[in-house]
């Protein structure tokens, strides 16, 4: 009949805990305290079906191994089985499941896979989020994980030529067992997370290629199944995680020996499990997809977190792994229970390598657990190099292997040249089986073989024995990256800055004035059209106001233009070139660079793109170091030339010292301008701008890594979000980093200071200047008006003297005036008109004029012609007639008392008006 789901659901706590696995009901109440991963993971599925959580992690015989027949309660009834299957079919799939299904359909064919990175790219797309997080995660900040791979970049070859290499044999022997390549599978657990057949895919693929496989204690396929799937001639090694229970550890070793495993690799670098934060966070991402997000409440516990992640399914920090292993006890114990060769997996320094040789083990595997254990442990290749330099005798006493960071055939050869017997790969095999199963493993091995053989031939090595230390050299490699993105030398960069500064100064000197003259014409036309009044003349107050406002508008528009132009012309950072966000993690950076390389590799775009590609590649290699990336985000590409710095503090100190030069020069310049210039309120605002921008820059540089930004902030720095990003600038330029925002602020300070200097005097003139300007404008207006009136009057008076303008009755025989007489009369008429206008003025101008005339009277010589301002409206001194006017024919005679000279009636009327 079977059990019902309803009955099973009643047993869902530690007092009575039942679970369903593959439609079988088990009572695991007594097993809770014995579970290697602790009771919490089982209690999570208490009273319900736990198959989906159990299958990807455990071997098929795990239940039979740990539970007695009495704890197997029997099957579910058929009705409930059908109900569970129906519920599973109706269950709404998560975003992660949909993504995996679509990615599986879009996998490229095997012939498109050129290297191990291509296989990894496919695996990252087809793996579920939790599986990818477990496979790819490293300890804490994952610096060691990254440095494992970067270490190979510091070693370069000395290729030998003219050596026969048509027959090249890359095979070797590992602990006396033949291998077609100097490569083996390093132990990795839970391969079923990536493929239902798990480690069986690796076993079958390696069997065909004659590659040795190391099987982990926590493999998701049982050791018996793996041994059964192996070819008769295939070699298997066993990786032992020693338990605190000696009986359990002894049984594991003896079982492996009985199944035909050829060596024991004792793991010595994983006595505790460190926090692999990416793996720990992966369930929280899936919670968001299923809508089961948890939030803080006052009743929450003390905040304890499952820091083991997926590893908690295998081990418990308290009672599984033996943290008391020692050279004096553990090695003799292991030697006493097996005759198999012993290799210590996890040696991380020269001293322990020497101790291992003294203890008589057959080999050591230099490893930091793929960067998953001790953060900041040396890369295995660096440890290998140290052994080669300091204790080369170790290689004569035992075999040395390394793993961690190996992704190319050249990586394998570098390790062999430095003395390694073979190298292990872990993650690449997991990625290969996850992406393509068994054929993926075979494809991966064929790629490695091609790369190894090709590199051996180019090195002049016909066999593994020819790979000697003379073929390799450690180089303290520095990025071949210039001071600017496309500027090769610092002098060129300085020259560009000087030219830009000169052009900017010239622009601010001439452009606003020229543009204002043209813009003012348009403003005056608009004023006339809109108001219906004539345009104000120069010198009038309205004209001055319109000029000021037009000038201020032009300057502000030119300021905006300069800011936009400076922003658009800013060289892109490497995140922008690669098309990723500055917040991208290292894996995303790698993927982006691979895509960039596919499009812009010199093989595709030709030699003209080689420089950009090499610059970007070198910068990418440098930015994989989180310390250099920290400095690059804050101080720009120049940090790639700071070769002697190693810590973030050193980079920060060096960068701040360099930046202080700019601020010191700016401060001195402000003080000099203030001392030489006139007193002005603009100085205060200029100083205020300087300190505001200086404080903003300091806040950007000293803040930690970027974080999310509130789009509602309109300040350059918002303390409410930690001050980790200039909010407004980040909103405007989301793909830029701190050093670009700082450069933009420098431009903004310079342009704003110049604009403020030009606009402020126009918009806010002081009172003394304003009164003086009004007085000068009044004089200018009066002078222009007088000149215009005098010209009109003179023209009228001169017309009256011409014979053609006189009436018939006035045609008397008189002598015509000479040109000199007319000129003298013109001058006198102008003077009289000006005198009249001055007399009409009631302001300070008349007083000034009368004082000037009085001084002139006292200084004038006797008989000289002078202008006299009459004391009354009826007094006037007649202008003297030049002496030259009385001489010669056709000249006017000297004035006589009677009769008076004949003049026109219009002239007589004007004479009356003057008096």
TrEMBL record:
Pfam families recorded: Cyt-b5 (PF00173), DnaJ (PF00226), FMN_dh (PF01070)
Cofactors that this protein relies on: FMN; heme b
A GO biological process held by the record: lactate metabolic process
Gene Ontology MF term list: heme binding; L-lactate dehydrogenase (cytochrome) activity; metal ion binding
PROSITE patterns: CYTOCHROME_B5_1, CYTOCHROME_B5_2, DNAJ_2, FMN_HYDROXY_ACID_DH_1, FMN_HYDROXY_ACID_DH_2
Domain FMN hydroxy acid dehydrogenase: start-end pairs: 108-477
Reactions catalysed according to its record: (S)-lactate + 2 Fe(III)-[cytochrome c] = 2 Fe(II)-[cytochrome c] + pyruvate + 2 H(+)
Annotated region described as Disordered, given as residue ranges: 860-915
Compositionally biased intervals (Low complexity): 903-915
Location(s) in or outside the cell: Mitochondrion intermembrane space
UniProt keyword terms in alphabetical order: Coiled coil, Flavoprotein, FMN, Heme, Iron, Metal-binding, Mitochondrion, Oxidoreductase, Transit peptide, Transport
UniProt record similarity statement: In the N-terminal section; belongs to the cytochrome b5 family. In the C-terminal section; belongs to the FMN-dependent alpha-hydroxy acid dehydrogenase family.
Name of protein: L-lactate dehydrogenase (cytochrome)
């Amino acid at each position: 009949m079977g059990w019902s789901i309803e009955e099973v659901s009643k047993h869902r706590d530690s007092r009575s805990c039942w679970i369903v696995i593959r439609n079988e009901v088990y009572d695991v109440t007594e097993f809770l305290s014995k579970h290697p991963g602790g009771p919490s993971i089982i209690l999570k599925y208490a009273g319900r079906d736990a198959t989906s959580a159990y299958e990807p992690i455990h071997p098929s015989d795990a239940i039979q191994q740990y539970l007695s027949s009495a704890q197997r309660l029997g099957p579910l009834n058929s009705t409930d089985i059908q109900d569970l299957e129906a519920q599973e079919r109706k269950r709404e799939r998560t975003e992660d499941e949909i993504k995996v299904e679509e990615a599986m359909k879009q996998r490229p064919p095997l012939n498109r896979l050129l290297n191990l990175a291509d296989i990894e790219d496919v695996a990252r797309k087809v793996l579920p989020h939790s599986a990818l997080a477990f496979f790819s995660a490293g300890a804490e900040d994952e610096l060691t994980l990254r440095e494992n791979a970067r270490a190979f970049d510091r070693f370069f070859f000395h290729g030998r030529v003219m050596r026969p290499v048509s027959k090249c044999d890359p095979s070797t022997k590992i602990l006396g067992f033949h291998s077609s390549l100097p490569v083996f599978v390093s132990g990795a657990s839970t391969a079923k997370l990536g493929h239902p057949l798990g480690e069986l895919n690796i076993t079958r693929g390696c069997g065909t290629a004659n590659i040795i496989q190391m099987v982990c204690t926590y493999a998701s396929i049982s050791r018996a199944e793996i041994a059964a799937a192996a070819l008769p001639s295939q070699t298997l090694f066993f990786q032992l995680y020693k338990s605190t229970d000696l009986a359990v550890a002894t049984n594991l070793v003896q079982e492996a020996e009985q199944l035909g495993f050829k060596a024991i690799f004792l793991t010595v670098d994983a006595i505790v499990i460190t926090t692999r934060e990416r793996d720990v966070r992966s369930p929280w991402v899936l919670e968001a997809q299923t809508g089961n997000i948890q939030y803080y409440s006052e009743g929450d516990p003390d905040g304890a977190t499952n820091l083991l992640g997926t590893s908690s399914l295998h081990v418990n920090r308290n009672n599984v792994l033996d943290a008391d292993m020692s050279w004096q006890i553990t090695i003799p114990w292991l030697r006493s229970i097996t005759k198999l060769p012993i290799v210590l997996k996890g040696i991380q320094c020269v001293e322990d390598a020497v101790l291992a040789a003294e203890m008589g083990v057959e080999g050591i595997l230099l490893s930091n657990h793929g960067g998953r254990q001790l953060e900041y442990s040396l890369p295995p290749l660096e440890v290998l190099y140290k052994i080669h330099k300091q204790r080369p005798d170790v290689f004569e006493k035992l075999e040395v292997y390394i793993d961690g960071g190996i992704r190319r055939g050249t990586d394998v050869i570098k390790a062999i040249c430095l003395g390694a017997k073979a190298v292990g790969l872990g993650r690449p095999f997991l990625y290969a089986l996850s992406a393509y199963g068994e054929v993926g493993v075979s494809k991966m091995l064929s790629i490695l073989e091609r790369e190894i053989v090709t590199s051996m031939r180019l090195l002049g090595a016909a066999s593994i024995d020819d790979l000697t230390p003379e073929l390799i050299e450690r180089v303290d490699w520095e990025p071949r990256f210039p001071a600017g993105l496309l500027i090769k030398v610092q002098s060129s960069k300085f020259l560009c800055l000087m030219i830009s500064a000169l052009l900017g100064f010239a622009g601010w000197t001439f452009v606003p004035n020229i543009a204002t003259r043209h813009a003012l014409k348009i403003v005056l036309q608009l004023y006339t059209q809109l108001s219906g009044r004539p345009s104000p003349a120069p010198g009038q107050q309205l004209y001055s106001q319109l000029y000021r406002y037009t000038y201020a508008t032009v300057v502000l528009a030119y300021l905006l233009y300069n800011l936009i132009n400076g922003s658009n012309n800013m060289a892109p950072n490497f995140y922008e070139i690669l098309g990723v966000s500055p917040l991208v993690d290292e894996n995303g950076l790698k993927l982006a660079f691979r895509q960039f390389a596919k499009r812009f590799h010199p093989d595709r775009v030709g030699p003209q793109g080689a420089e950009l590609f090499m610059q970007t590649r070198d910068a990418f290699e440098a930015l994989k170091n989180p310390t250099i990336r920290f400095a690059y985000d804050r101080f720009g590409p120049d940090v790639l030339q700071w070769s002697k710095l190693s810590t973030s503090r050193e980079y920060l100190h060096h960068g701040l010292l360099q930046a202080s030069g700019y601020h010191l020069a700016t401060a001195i310049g402000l003080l000099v301008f203030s001392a030489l210039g006139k007193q002005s309120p603009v100085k205060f605002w200029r100083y205020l701008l300087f300190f505001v921008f200086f404080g903003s820059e300091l806040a950007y540089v000293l803040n930690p890594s970027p974080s999310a930004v509130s789009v509602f902030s309109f300040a350059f720095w918002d303390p409410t979000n930690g001050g980790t990003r200039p909010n407004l600038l980040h909103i405007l330029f989301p793909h830029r980093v701190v050093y670009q925002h700082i450069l933009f602020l420098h431009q903004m300070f310079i342009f704003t200071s110049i604009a403020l200097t030009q606009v402020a005097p126009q918009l806010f003139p002081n009172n003394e200047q304003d009164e003086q300007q009004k007085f000068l404008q009044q004089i200018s207006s009066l002078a222009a008006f007088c000149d215009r009136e005098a010209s009109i009057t003179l023209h009228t008076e001169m017309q009256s003297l011409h014979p053609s303008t006189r009436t018939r009755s006035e045609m008397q025989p008189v002598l015509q005036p000479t040109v000199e007489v007319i000129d003298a009369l013109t001058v006198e008429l102008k003077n009289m008109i000006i005198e009249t206008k001055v007399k009409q003025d009631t302001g300070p101008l008349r007083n000034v004029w009368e004082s000037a005339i009085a001084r002139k009277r006292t200084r004038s010589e006797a008989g000289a012609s002078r202008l006299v301002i009459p004391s009354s409206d009826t007094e006037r001194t007649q202008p003297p007639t030049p002496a030259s006017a009385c001489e010669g024919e056709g000249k006017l005679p000297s004035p006589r008392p009677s009769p008076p000279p004949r003049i026109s009636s219009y002239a007589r009327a004007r004479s009356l008006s003057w008096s």
